[in-house]
Amino acid sequence: MEIGRSVQWRSRLSGLGLTLAAALLSAPPVGAEEAAAVYRCGNTYQAKPCPGAVPVDAADPRSPAQQRQAQATVQRDQAEARRMATERRAAEREAQRHGGAANLGPRAAAAPAKPASAAAKAKPRKPKPKPGKAAGAGKGVRPP
User: Fold this and answer.
1) Helix (H, G, I), strand (E, B) or coil at 38
2) Sign of the torsion formed by the C-alpha atoms of 75, 81, 84 and 86
3) What DSSP letter does each residue of 94-130 carry, written as one string?
């Protein structure tokens, strides 16, 4: 699978998910002709009133044509999601046949670069102490 195609598939899927979520949240339950009473109790909404409950108008303001259009959109998006899932599973099976994730990187690691001169090969040496100073002098250690 090409990388560009994978990115395109992911962006289509995320857009499809948002569309599907919006349609599902805005669509009434199947067979619900009349909305049940809804009450706001503090920061929650429920079907049974509580002390101090405020009735909320939860009726669907959309026309029947708009509701049918939303339902058609949901069905189309579900069919597209099923098609994309089938395509993804086929691509995953194909990738497994060809080594899976092992094929994502380079085949062999590049050999390390060799130093150009002998000086580059030499180990760094410790600096020699200056004459006249004892080891550890000047580092908070008193001489004997």
Assistant:
1) strand
2) negative
3) HHHHTTGGGGSS-SSPPPPPPPSSHHHHSPPPPPPPP
Residue given tokens 């062999």 in the structure block? 108
C-alpha to C-alpha distance for 39 and 50, rounded to whole angstroms: 8
| pLDDT per position as a tens digit, 69-126 | 999 999 999 999 999 999 999 999 998 888 755 555 566 666 666 666 655 566 777 8
User: Count of CB atoms within 10 A of residue 120's CB?
Assistant: 8
More confident residue, 36 or 64: 64
Distance of CA 62 to the CA centre of its chain: 34
The pTM of this model reads 0.37
Return the structure tokens found at 111.
């050999």
